[in-house]
Amino acid sequence: xxxxxxxxxxxxxxxxxxxxxxxxxxxxxxxxxxxxxxxxxxxxxxxxxxxxxxxxxxxxxxxxxxxxxxxxxxxxxxxxxxxxxxxxxxxxxxxxxxxxxxxxxxxxxxxxxxxxxxxxxxxxxxxxxxxxxxxxxxxxxxxxxxxxxxxxxxxxxxxxxxxxxxxxxxxxxxxxxxxxxxxxxxxxxxxxxxxxxxxxxxxxxxxxxxxxxxxxxxxxxxxxxxxxxxxxxxxxxxxxxxxxxxxxxxxxxxxxxxxxxxxxxxxxxxxxxxxxxxxxxxxxxxxxxxxxxxxxxxxxxxxxxxxxxxxxxxxxxxxxxxxxxxxxxxxxxxxxxxxxxxxxxxxx
Amino acid sequence: xxxxxxxxxxxxxxxxxxxxxxxxxxxxxxxxxxxxxxxxxxxxxxxxxxxxxxxxxxxxxxxxxxxxxxxxxxxxxxxxxxxxxxxxxxxxxxxxxxxxxxxxxxxxxxxxxxxxxxxxxxxxxxxxxxxxxxxxxxxxxxxxxxxxxxxxxxxxxxxxxxxxxxxxxxxxxxxxxxxxxxxxxxxxxxxxxxxxxxxxxxxxxxxxxxxxxxxxxxxxxxxxxxxxxxxxxxxxxxxxxxxxxxxxxxxxxxxxxxxxxxxxxxxxxxxxxxxxxxxxxxxxxxxxxxxxxxxxxxxxxxxxxxxxxxxxxxxxxxxxxxxxxxxxxxxxxxxxxxxxxxxxxxxxxxxxxxxxxxxxxxxxxxxxxxxxxxxxxxxxxxxxxxxxxxxxxxxxxxxxxxxxxxxxxxxxxxxxxxxxxxxxxxxxxxxxxxxxxxxxxxxxxxxxxxxxxxxxxxxxxxxxxxxxxxxxxxxxxxxxxxxxxxxxxxxxxxxxxxxxxxxxxxxxxxxxxxxxxxxxxxxxxxxxxxxxxxxxxxxxxxxxxxxxxxxxxxxxxxxxxxxxxxxxxxxxxxxxxxxxxxxxxxxxxxxxxxxxxxxxxxxxxxxxxxxxxxxxxxxxxxxxxxxxxxxxxxxxxxxxxxxxxxxxxxxxxxxxxxxxxxxxxxxxxxxxxxxxxxxxxxxxxxxxxxxxxxxxxxxxxxxxxxxxxxxxxxxxxxxxxxxxxxxxxxxxxxxxxxxxxxxxxxxxxxxxxxxxxxxxxxxxxxxxxxxxxxxxxxxxxxxxxxxxxxxxxxxxxxxxxxxxxxxxxxxxxxxxxxxxxxxxxxxxxxxxxxxxxxxxxxxxxxxxxxxxxxxxxxxxxxxxxxxxxxxxxxxxxxxxxxxxxxxxxxxxxxxxxxxxxxxxxxxxxxxxxxxxxxxxxxxxxxxxxxxxxxxxxxxxxxxxxxxxxxxxxxxxxxxxxxxxxxxxxxxxxxxxxxxxxxxxxxxxxxxxxxxxxxxxxxxxxxxxxxxxxxxxxxxxxxxxxxxxxxxxxxxxxxxxxxxxxxxxxxxxxxxxxxxxxxxxxxxxxxxxxxxxxxxxxxxxxxxxxxxxxxxxxxxxxxxxx
Lengths: 348, 1105
Fold this sequence. Notes:
The complex is a heterodimer of chains A (348) and B (1105). Chain A is α+β, with helices and mostly antiparallel strands and 348 residues long.
């Protein structure tokens, strides 16, 4: 009676205990779940390893030769002028270079060692110049360079962001210290024209430096760094600046100054009229003028060729040594007797 | 201390919690702070947060703060999401339980309410098959006898039905009365002991007089049990919500840390120190350079007077530059691969037990590597090594042995005859077999009688008795009905003197309804029963019988009985009731009272029950012992049975080969003397090729563990095999703790509730989901169906997991160090000012994408096939000894990253010198070089390559280009057009090729050289696998891995090493101890991560110091 009442009263929610059982809980088979995916097990067999080394040698040596030849084909004239362009009896070079009243003109004569085919690249090279210094490399404002309306966006440019209370365009240490030596070339008493167009990256001119951004308030601070810019030419056409602002990762670097579209013959002598404005004397940096032809590898650089030849040679040597070792001291593949626990008889 | 529950009293307001169950860890409001707080408790996370915060200071940050914040937030989000999801699921299931409808009595009528609204004191009604919503004290059932049956599987995993009875005062109340019942229940405060409730009930008039009635656990219905075979039951809620027995026992188990994690943490610490050193050196060098050189460089424009903090700007910059030394991705990667290892265990077909339909399961996904580093296995006997399927085999009744010839007493003609002739001894024996138990007979629909028993022994005895025509037909409340040779005999069960592991016996007091005589029937272990024999009984036959059966590996029980005088019983019964209603020390008091009755027994005989070994146990133990794992058997069984089983399953060898050393004794002096003797023998005989094992029993162990811990520790370290018999669950746990304190990796395996503590204590707990319920399997980290799967769990899954994690973790450091070394090298060319060579995007993507994904496929790497491992289990030593991840292998990877950084950096700056030295380009060349080397390193270090690995490694390489092409086409990005520009240059590709050649050449050459001329055992087996396919020639498995050492250390042969001859020498000689303990002693051997130095010849007991 009462039991019945209790039994019938609570609705259908009372069968929680009878959980439905699946037929089997056996894991499903697949090659992945059983860790049985087909696999290749590379084994370092002598044959395989020796042939790899031979193959690497065979590939590397020719590449080395080609690279070396390419590098050797490049004709390069390097002329260091920082010391030479200071009047011989100057004791304080720093005072000399910092004195704006003294004329900095200087003349250098170069001899062409080999025939040079156009185009001949004119670089300036700086040594011991840390364009990659943390303080220097960050001191620029890309937004300001690109966009005329963002002229006041100079927060990243310290300590060269504002002069006389207004924002500098282009701001920052990099722009401020743009290289300002100039070169003029005379060959056979004829002026060699230096083509300064397209020395910067096209992408920089088009997307990084705005064509409506003009230099403003530039080099107006108490200290004048490097080059001054023509405030009437937009930044996208200030190619020397653009080149300079592609900072170099190493303390020794070359930057393109211009191109000469005239072939030079061996033995020709070139007179360079240069203006030695840029101060490298305070930190004993070197300044060099470089004239160079170019190949697929770029400028003169023996490193790749030599490295390839060395590595190729070493590979051949290793292959040879391993072969020799293999012949003298052959090891049978997979001999269980090499297993340490098989080698010693029991009970020792 | 106590709570008073007033039954069904609305006026009495109690402030106990309601029945709302809450298992959730978080609420909506506290989720974010609480979760963040938990995550930041880890050192690594604190470190990353500090770095991320430092990056917000733009003066010092080398890169965009996003490069750290991005991954950090990502990693945190992943962990938080996982937590939130788990918690949400818990919330949902709580909600379901809370909103379940239940019937309670209110104001004298029955009402439907939600489970969460039950208050303490309410009367709750439950129907058949319903779940009990909270802890109830039973006051009424549909059964006229006042009993009901419950299934407690959710609570303790035991699947048999348990009988619950209503307290005597409530007997005979009908439903109307139950609605109006008033009273008070006095019970202790909530605790988590599900086997115990020491409470009292007193009903108020007009029901019964003010008699106090004791309550025990058998008067309760606990939360989460199910009511079975009973139409309805009702009870008073005493504990509700999270204060129920179940709620109290729910705890968050302490997370286990693997040896490998500990090693990784140590290495992280070492890297951190290295990082600090680098920061200090470079930071001060940077400050010096700044003052001497940078001030001359007008273009940097340093101010002359600068703020005070400038001095720490450069060091902090370097700290940030070097912060990537500790890979932020390692935690995520490890979590990912670890959960995959666990999945592989779940998925493994070969660890699926057909018989019981149980697949293996990894409940703890974080400790698979530890399986490969196990040094000690502590195993339970019953149900773990044996099947726990008890079969009655032999018996000795009144001095006559039955079943000796056939091995099956049930088919022994003599016994059958004795039964047919109603031999009085035999009848008494059978009566005890039938009645002295807690078995419940259940009539199935077909008329056959099934027995539900808590203990397998009882089941075997009752079944055997029924085969001998003494059938327990019905047990209804206190009445038992027995059919014997066609006769019906009625007994009334007056009292049950329950079995406890301390008493080691149980008794019942029954009243023979026909004759009115009262009997005490007892059964129990021999040492618990035989001393109770009446003086003058010849007990020698029984002692002999026990010995004889034990030697056959049979489990013995002694049966006895005594007729009681009515007065004696009545007197005793009063004190028994008193003891049973005690609130304090009830168990002890009850035992005391029981003792008073259990004496002067007439020993009837000895029963012998066989518990067969599981399939494959001897082979499994053999293989695992070959692999250098030491076995300890811990059992509650008696010494001789334990030894017999140990012999049967290869745990110990018989006399000429092995020797057993006994530690026994009753008094402290005896025990100490025997311990010292054993220790002495151990020390001496370690030079003989003999397998030594010591045997100790629980009694001696108690004394030893409390007072002679040190000596025992030494013994434990010296001995490879041990048998501990008659041990209690807490002693099992103590032994595990002892081995753990010696710095050994322990694995405990068991199947029953008495193994739970040891399983939880051990580094790895393995539960066998067996007949004793799922309790052990639930508490364990891994659960398997049969003991034999253990070898696969350890040798295959454990070993692979170890190898894979070893590679993954070291590789993670390698790649982070590589990029970091490049940054450091670059700083020497950038005026030690802390410039970053790489841009923010590259740095972030490097750790998170470019280098993380390929190495994750290491989860598919297999150095040796499973078959080879099984045939050469000694190879496990490499994992045990931590050969693949230790300071010296790590030094190898460290060296490799330094070498590769040099290669990448030097080649890049020379190939991209002069007019090509543009910052963005140069950095991308260096980055491509690093990525390229990574791909080659992963390919070379993988032992087996599936298409997944190929896809991941080289697909990732492609993805690197695709990602960078994409970034290069965004005009505002710093690296606009850079990647297109590079890919068009021949120089770029030529440089990459050179970097790969120079970077990988020496690595390959050294690897090949080691592989061919100084191969590790793994290498040899790899080659063997290749040349012979699977090896059929079973090698002579006298394991002497030590000779590995002899190759490198000639002087070794002259060094006297004591333990030389023992079979498990390898573990001892180049033991993990040396590598583990001497973290500092790391030789710097570059390119050789796979081999460790073999200089250590430490005797094993180094740990004992």
